[in-house]
Amino acid sequence: MTDKALTIETLCKDRGPTRVLSDVSLHVAPGERVALLGHNGAGKSTLIKSILGLTRIDGGSIRIGTAAPGSAQARRETAYLPEAVSFHPALTGREQLRLFARLSGERADVSGLLERVGLADAMDRRIGAYSKGMRQRLGLAQVLLGKPRVALLDEPTSGLDPISRQDLYAIIDELAGQGAAVLIASHALTEVEARTDRIAILRKGVKVADDTLANLSALAGLPIRLRVRARENADALAARLGGSRVNGASVELLCDPADKMTALRSIAAMGEAVVDVDMTPPRLEDLYRHYAKETLQ
């Protein structure tokens, strides 16, 4: 029995003369939440379709537990939430989820699932009257049917308001807590920065990063940003610290992570000349730009 819920080894996919995925390897363990990042066209959707068995691969291998993509076992053990989720507009939310439960052979608490995703007051309304965010919630309820080994979520917060986004990630945490391996393809960097265990980045079909946020930050060696607020003379403080004056009253300087404590001690030595200090480590957006070598889209 494998200890990985999802195992991808040296995956290759060609589209005509173009290689859209090149030797991509990615392992996701039970209970792990992995963010899959990449600019438009980086290969995220092709990778997800390959895991689902919807796209034939040209090299390498994929396993959901021990099952091949597209097999009956893999379909039973995989849940998928697409970005553009679509349901029959004439059915109610309750009717649609009951249909999915029957098709999957699950004896599910349909009403409880709809309440869990925030559709308690809309479960008997026709889906044609749902907003995009409500359809996204219904798609999440479908993901929760049974206990999937692997959950693939493609831009899961699309169309959701801020509170609904928090609720969704709470449910993702529950999925992971139940042992599901969760792969989240997203452009919402601030969200996945705080709510995932590992970050994988694709660039032009090649995996260019795959590690925890802390390790990616250490490997990148990006500088820490310090902003020091001066009591009176920001120009003089900038000259002493070797930084640049910003917004008239503060000084900004960059330092290597290894030099952080030295820089803080130098600032503390300024005594009453310093009113406050803010320290900002590299954000996921900075790391994404570094590894993907692309502007965000």
From TrEMBL:
Entries under PROSITE patterns matching the protein: ABC_TRANSPORTER_1, ABC_TRANSPORTER_2
GO molecular function, one term: ATP binding
Alphabetical keyword list: ATP-binding, Nucleotide-binding, Transport
Stored InterPro entries: AAA+_ATPase (IPR003593), ABC_transporter-like_ATP-bd (IPR003439), ABC_transporter-like_CS (IPR017871), ABC_Transporter_VariousFunc (IPR051782), P-loop_NTPase (IPR027417)
Residues of the signal peptide: none
Keyword Zinc: no
Residue ranges constituting the ABC transporter domain according to the UniProt record: 6-229
Top-level taxon in the UniProt lineage: Bacteria
Protein's UniProt keywords contain Ribonucleoprotein: no
PANTHER family associated with the record: ABC TRANSPORTER ATP-BINDING PROTEIN ALBC-RELATED
Protein name: ABC transporter ATP-binding protein
Native species: Ruegeria pomeroyi
